[in-house]
Amino acid sequence: MGLLRRHLYLLAAEHKKYPMTGDVLTLGQQSVHAPLNEVMSLFKQQDVFLKELPAGFDTKNKIPDWKGTKYGHYTNCQAVAMLLGAQKVYAADVSTYENPDIVMDFSLPVDKKYYNAFDVILDVGTLEHIFDISTALENIRLMTKPGGIIILGTWTSGAINHGFYQICPTLFYDYFTKNSFDDINCFMLVGSALNYEKKAAIYQCKKPAMIQDLTFNSKTGIETMFFARKKVSSTENPKMQSPIQSYYLASPYWNRSPIPSKTKSPVKEIIAWLVFITRKWRPEFIDMIWKAIKTKKNLIYRGRY
Question: Tell me, what's the pLDDT at 256?
Fold first, then answer.
């Protein structure tokens, strides 16, 4: 997938909180779906101070399949990261096809020489293609410097067989909070799974939205964009802690706590009774509307990009 305009918007909008500094690692040769002038214009609209690129810096597309196509004039991720302040940008991939700087298989434990090596790790659209995703997440954790930033984007719904997985926010949230990351921010990008370059509605998640059921229109393609920072105190890289899903940890049933009794009003009792008796035959759009209303209470609309 790579960096679409919506991802570029979020990199710019969140730049003050999650700056692109120092050594940056990308998972795969990240494509950029915009020419350099459009990237710069979008960043300036978000009041991002752009670092001047070195003389002779290669800003051309680095995706071999794009050469000679209508995408051939697009820029590359290295130029995007450098504009935002990176000192050096490395691409890592299992294959040499797209000329990565580092050849590695993220399904295997990373070489210790890469521990705490990168100030920022950026991926939009690679993780879902890695079979051993727990090892991949562990590698990302180990390779991030204390105080460093991770920015991960992936399909969450509407892209069957695009990759091995469609990843929910709760996986990122539960894994990284359990493993020495905080300062977390998460976004849901609701657009098209048929045409990636169509604009998407961007919603910022309040904390409950990262761990509770979320329901969107089933005809859309939905992505997660996740930002987090490795705790400065995390210097020893202890063994990975496997998380238990927060949705269950928050349940009083899971904790065997007494379930608080709730007195419902007569109106709510009637509504609950109607929901129950109509469950087998009521039109699905009613459930969709009801679930969508509950979902959007935990989301903040940020616009369409």
Answer: 72
- Asked whether the beta carbons of 7 and 124 are under 8 A apart, the reply is yes
Cross-strand pairs, 102: 92
**For residue 201, what are the β-bridge partners?**
190, 304
Asked if residues 151 and 11 have their Cβ atoms less than 8 Å apart, the reply is yes
Distance CA 297, CA 293 (A): 7
Same domain, 150 and 237: yes
- Looking at the fold, whether 146 and 272 belong to one and the same domain comes out as no
How far from 98 is each of 68, 93, 130, 160, 167, CA to CA, in Å? 16, 8, 17, 25, 25
Q: How would residue 8 be classed by pLDDT, with cut points 50, 70 and 90?
A: very high
For 45-94, the pLDDT digits (tens) are 999 999 999 999 999 999 999 999 999 999 999 999 999 999 999 999 99
Tell me: do 57 and 120 sit in the same domain: yes
Residue with the two structure tokens 């820029």: 75
Pairwise CA distance, residues 101 & 123, whole Å = 15
Would you say residue 169 has pLDDT above 80? yes
- Alpha carbons 139 and 115: distance in angstroms, whole number: 8
H or E stretch covering 175:
helix 169-178
Does residue 253 have a pLDDT over 70? yes
Tokens standing for residue 302: 């940020």
- Least Cα distance to 179 among 187, 189, 191, 171 occurs for 171
Enter the tokens of residue 144: 């991030």
